[in-house]
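Page 42, continued from yesterday. The earlier attempt failed because a stray header line got pasted into the input along with the sequence. Redoing it now with the clean sequence only.
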Amino acid sequence: MKKSLTFVVAALVMISAFTGCEKGDTTGTYSMTANIGGTPVAFDNSLVNVVSKPITGTVSYVIQGLNNQKSYPYIYIYIPTNTTGTYSIGGYGSPVYAIYAVDTLTTKYSNSGSLVFAAGFPLATGAYSFTCTDGTVISSGSFSAKGLN
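This time it went through. Structure tokens are written below.
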């Protein structure tokens, strides 16, 4: 019974994390900005989700830079803790890593960078920069992200 309940809870967390964004109070100061390849980009919505990884049993926080009116581009930053501090951004699978999705066919993964996590869940704020494996530079990034969970 305990294993079944754990599986159900994990499944519900995964479903809520991957079925879309809460469209409730998204008109506040929740945003993400960055220079992508030298061009300023502003995402009009920034959220932070708690995602459970059922295989490892660990929890990650996902900071998302999104646009309300379109699906792409977006930035996700994964961090395994809600503790403020300065973190090194590594490659995909590292404890802290980032994804820059350009469109449905082009997803770029971080290679190196830094994240300053100034305030944690439920209202995450901070700054970031990273270089993708293909050399794309994401710089001067900042976020103020609304917690969903």
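Notes: Confidence is low (pLDDT under 50) at residues 1-28.
Reminder to self: strip header lines before submitting.
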